[in-house]
Amino acid sequence: MSGIASTPSTSIINKGGSADGSASRVPAASTYGKEVVGKRVKVWWPEDEEYYGGTITAFSGGGDGKHAILYDDGEEERVYLARETIQWEDSEFLPSAETSIEQKRGEAAHPVTQEDSVAKEVARKRRVVQDESESEDEINFSSATPVGVAPFPSFPFSLKELSGKRARLESPALSNGEGEDNDAESKGRRDGFARTAFAGLGLGNDSFAPSEPASAPRANESSSNSQIRGTPASISNSTVFNTPLSASSGRARLSLGSSGGGSVKRGRASWVEEEEDEVVAASHDRPDGVLEYGKHTHNGLKWLWDPNRRDAQGRSPQHPDFDRRTLQVPAAFLAKETPAMRQWWEFKAQHLDTILFFKVGKFYEIFHMDADVAVRELDLIYMKGEKAHSGFPEIAYGKFAPLLVEKGYRVARIEQVETPEAMKEHNRRCGPGAKRTVVARELCSVLSRGTRTFCYLDEATFEEGAGSDPTGAPLLIAIKEEKVEAEAGREGENEGRVAYGVCMVDPTTATFHLGQFEDGPQRWRLKTMLSQFSPAEVLLERGGACASLEQVVRLCAPGALVEMLRPGAEFWDADKAFKELKKGDYFPRGSKKKGKVKGDGEAEGESEEGEGLMNGCGRWPLTLQVVAAARRDKARLALCALGGVIWQLRRSLIDKDLLSMQSFYPYAPPDVVLRDAVAPMPEETEGLEPGTEEEDIFSCLGGDEALLFDMNESEEGLQRETLGESGRGGGVERKSDHGRSLVLDGTALTNLEIFRNSYDGTGKGTLWEHLNHCRTAFGARKLREMLCRPSQRPGVINARLDAVTELKDELSPEADEIRRLLRKMPDLERQLARHHALGSVHRAEDHPDSRAIMYELDKYNGRKINDFLSTLEGLKTASKVRTILFDSMDGCHSTLLQRLTKTFPDLGPRLVFFGEAFDPAQAKREGVITPKPGYDDEYDSAKERIEAVMAEMETYLKEQRQRLGSQEIKYWGNKDKDRFQLEVPEAILRRGQPADYEAKSSKKGCRRFHTPRIRELLEELGDAEASLSEAQRHEMRRLFEKFDQDRQLWTTAVNSLALLDVLLAFAEVSSGANYCRPTLVPYHADSTEDADGSNGAIPAPFLSIKGGRHPCLETRAALGDYIPNDIELGVATGQRERVMLLSGPNMGGKSTLLRQTCVLAILAQLGCYVPADECSLTPVDRIFTRVGASDRILQGQSTFFVELAETANILQHATSRSLVILDELGRGTSTFDGTAIAHAVVSFLVQRLQCRALFATHYHSLVEDWRGHVGVCFGHMACLVEPDEAEQKVTFLYRLADGPSPKSYGLNVARLAHLPSEVIDLAREKSETFEAFMTQQGQDGTGNKGKGTKVHPQLWLGAEIFALLTESPSSMTVDEKAKTARALWTEWNAQ
């Protein structure tokens, strides 16, 4: 609620009537009654420290004596006016002297200006409830400062309700106090704020709900920060908090006041919705004493900014080794800082590029330049004081940290690792020189886009659910580039070629891919990799990467963060990376066991202690063994890239969590094996058994390796590929399917809109959206893998099609039941990685997080338990799916489903073990896992020892009762060493006190004793209880560790579910209307093909589609509106034409037909039904696309250059089995050059490659050039023209018709685009003039005249030019001109 301006006519009535407020309370009815109804009044809200205006609407004189006030924001409240601090807008309603109103302790009217009321009145108010949070006041806070920490993205509102709003809380100022805060008033203020402010925001034990729907959302505006960063991560709707960023101009603010150190009459929170076009100056919203941006201490520190800044080593920004991540802080400056701030600067000096969340008690505090970022990006507000300072409570970390990370910032979490009491104890024990003045803190986490693992601190774990953006995975990629040196005598061949080493890791699944390959000047392979993997963060070597590499990365991964690492120190060389791997203790130790693969230079008899050998690597993942063995040759760059990744993961403190998962797989560009399939086996692989996994991995490490697995469709290879065992799995690596898949390079993925559309860059209308009916997140990721690499093996494709047919027909009821089960399943693949980390001994004992003091530990433990229980439930669901599969196999004919069912592991026994290991309900309720007897030997042993001691205690008690002759003797006490005191009545002791009884305490009528035996038992009990406590402390970790020991079992089940989910998605798509099963005709490897494709021993490449429709466009068209088309390329129906020249009017559907053909081929080779009446084809090995027009300014490439570069890639890499589409090639230059290039490209496609191709063109002369050629057919997009009208309106039929089109009807498009009529008229006039000229020279623009000689228009013009040059234009007849044109044509072709 906005404050109401105080004017001279208003009068403030303090709660006391008299000036000093000393009068006693008087009933409201005796002071005000009906006479004030209808009057304007302003009521002081102490929690907000603001007056809110309203109108008194009623008075219940005969009831409770309250007045009803309708506030200007619409809220109505009934109050005792005499008990409120109020302002009347009319002085005639001042109370009399005898009016008695209680004055609030320490409260005074808050000065309010007219400018404070610029926002609209309150939309909602929220009561604030109590929270018991306490905080360490190591950094003192002024008692006169309003507390404020905001905004909390944790309100119980939905995202839609809060979109376009921001929350604001006023903050406590930071003083320069040192160490622990001893100011009671200051502490009371801060604790009071915690109790009142945070509880009602979903941060304490209670929460509140909105009383009415919030207003409609407004779209967020993008930030103008110079860093590369994408849009904020979307926050799922939940009952906890959802607050979008404040980049929007339409927003709301939440204002809460402090408790003031005294009693608070009521705490109120108000949402104030501001107009979207209304900009409120910072000073208007800023409390007194809070400085605006740019006015704080750090802004005046010259040593903090360039050019005065120095790194930790004292180097200036101009120094070649300058480290921008570090800072040299002057010692004189630090000497003036408080101990806590000195500690902050010590962290900041080593992490200058990182936002520090600095833990102080229960709060994460943010200082100096970091606070500037927090205020700007998170909509927090500054606290009072000269030092920029902001913050939020610990529980809100999981909301604020992701917001900054998604905006492109790096966030560090610095935790306290001791309490103030522990620091005092340390100082008491240590000498004077070792005493500390501030609690110890450690860096526990560094988050960035590419290193976020989504731990228990995140309130909502990252779920890439079905239908989500597949590129949303936080993928980290390191790229090492090196120029390829030309061989002697072949310098020109390697010009512009480079070699790349790449390492890719998904931190959410701990999956690594390693590879090394060469690339050409246009970097097609690199672009393809970036398009397929869509990284969130890319690591490059400073000085080692050329400018073009960074440009390619920013072009193909525009949303990725690009970070430059220093060579050697951060981006390691191969030898250092290998050494770090060996000493990093990432994998199970194998000190005397050597790996399967020999290292470079290793020979029989060499010492196992020799440097660089493979001893000690026997238990490394096989991919890593191969890479390490070839680290000085074929895998050197790949290992360098891995070194860069490990450095970044180590910096983020997650290197052991991820590498210990041992999920390493090889990567090779999809076209590497295709081009090298006929290459001889290199000498480097002679030691490897042909067809083995080691050899297969080795093939991924260079550009010239052979196809290292058998291309024949053996039963084992077919089963492996059919089951999708490529590139990702669960710890046991499998054969890759490189060379067996349809290659889709980056250009094809973009032009065919596989994952992102060309309109707004989202997944709407893409093939991914059309296919992604997966119910699980890991199924969606599997679908993405398969979509990037469709198969080209008919056996694999048909096996998938058989499974899809069964699932959509005979097994339809079972498929529906499985879909229902899968829909409830969590992201098991990512949860397995989280459980692995939580079960790690390293994280529990050595990681700084194990020492961090977390005040919300019960909640975090609850999240861990809920995650684990969710995983168990998901695996139980997997068992149910397995049961359904087994029960349905009797009538199933699909070999793939049978194989899938057979390999689906039985999870039952292990799930029973974990299900009975503890009580889930008790674990949820208490936040700890208490194992049942028999499931944890350490815990059981401690319990047995305690029970044994307790039994001894009872036996001893019976002995003492018998000894003293009284059953009234009992044990008393329950505190540590005071426990088990023998309470003996004094009447018994009068007969004599045993000598071994040592008095401890007494009460009237009784005395209490310890004995030596009791002390012995207490010591034993203490030891046993300590053992039990230690066992309980590690019980959760040990449970996760036991669970992780079965990771291979769980992963196998998840992989099976992922493939089944994909097949179910294909079945759902294939159930669409008029979808047909494609027919894949295999090639025969033992046959040869004639040059013209006429040999009947092998089917020449062909493609036949009847009634084909674009699946993505069809779903968006009205029923029956989409026009199907037929395509025939090849010899399947007796024709030999593999190249179609496609013409027709602009906007007639040519580009759609081209893309549609490619998309249907992809669908067919995925193993899915296609939207067509009939579809048959021989497998396509690669799809090439040359469509659209765009330049690349950053790379200095014009539109026409981009066209020709893409065309060159096609001509250099296409084979006879490829599918090529080219759309209007040559339009970026003159008509003559464009026609000439187009003709030459068609000639290459027809005569050299003999591949299937669709060539759309508006060069009608090009069509005439190839008329009658056996390898070319013609088609055009039909249309209807209204010849009677001058405008020649064109009606598009969107149907493919035979033969060429006579015209392109460009003027019709000009009319549709609303060009000015005078422009269109002039264009029509010029067009008619040109056509008349061409008709004069030939007939209908074909050049046919005289004796019917056929000459094309361009050649006629060439002949005319030749005649002019020879100065004999008038002496040449038409036939002579034609003869001259033919001579020019012959000479042209000869050249």
Automatic annotation (TrEMBL):
Keywords: ATP-binding, DNA damage, DNA repair, DNA-binding, Nucleotide-binding. Gene3D superfamilies: 1.10.1420.10, 2.30.30.140, DNA repair protein MutS, domain I, MutS, connector domain, P-loop containing nucleotide triphosphate hydrolases. InterPro entries: DNA_mismatch_repair_MutS-lik_N, DNA_mismatch_repair_MutS/MSH, DNA_mismatch_repair_MutS_C, DNA_mismatch_repair_MutS_clamp, DNA_mismatch_repair_MutS_core, DNA_mismatch_repair_MutS_N, DNA_mismatch_repair_MutS_sf, DNA_mmatch_repair_MutS_con_dom. Residues 245-257 have a biased composition (Low complexity). Residues 1-29, 168-270, 591-612, 718-738 are annotated as: Disordered. Residues 1-13, 220-244 have a biased composition (Polar residues). Residues 602-611 have a biased composition (Acidic residues). Residues 184-193 have a biased composition (Basic and acidic residues). One of its GO terms (cellular component) is MutSalpha complex. Pfam families: MutS_I, MutS_II, MutS_III, MutS_IV, MutS_V. GO terms for molecular function: ATP binding; ATP-dependent DNA damage sensor activity; mismatched DNA binding. The keyword DNA-binding applies. Residues 1218-1234 form the DNA mismatch repair proteins mutS family domain. One of its GO terms (biological process) is mismatch repair. Belongs to the DNA mismatch repair MutS family. PANTHER family: DNA MISMATCH REPAIR PROTEIN MSH6, DNA MISMATCH REPAIR PROTEIN MUTS FAMILY MEMBER. Component of the post-replicative DNA mismatch repair system (MMR). This is DNA mismatch repair protein. It comes from Nannochloropsis salina CCMP1776.
